[in-house]
Amino acid sequence: MNKHLNNYIYKVVLLFAATLSINFTNKIVYCVLSFTVLMCTLNAIAKHHGSKKATISIVCCTTLTFGLLYNKPYCIIPGKPISGLILASLCAVLMASYIGFKLFLKLETRYGFVVSNCISLLIASLVDHLIMGIFFTNSFPMHRILLILFKETAYTYLFTSIIYLCSVAVSYAKPALMRLIKKILTAIGRYPAG
Description:
The protein has helices at about 5-20, 30-50, 50-70, 85-135, 140-185; strands at about 75, 80. It is an all-alpha fold and about 190 residues long. The protein has one domain (about 5-185). The model has no long low-confidence stretch (mean pLDDT about 85).
């Protein structure tokens, strides 16, 4: 199988796993972590395979997830299911991820992968949080909604900062490591000097 196609399939499987796992927990930190993985994967698909494949991938993943979880009772408070939460969650994911990867593609040519990934992740998560906050206005009092939004935003900034720092470390460490390997190979005579 073609390596390019093989990489695309792995990314779509990871995208589907992240989309599916968002609705399997009622802990905010795990939902935000899943959304962060989803957006990073979608941005990678958009960068390496194009906007069309990224759009098709996220639409197929959210549709398939909705089909699998359609009848699942979702309880944030144990014993008290909230109707329509999975549909609202997947619609929020679909809209926020589309906005996020389109923003990523616009920014990527100007700022590079690391910065544009960070910015698009933050904007997409804010869109997702706002849509879910609007959905929760029928279920919770306003102070609880604001607390949920605050926690989601705090975890998003934490995970985005970690991804940003790791990406910067890798992007700076890789060229330095390649120079070091070249010097070592030149010193032992296995790399042509020049």
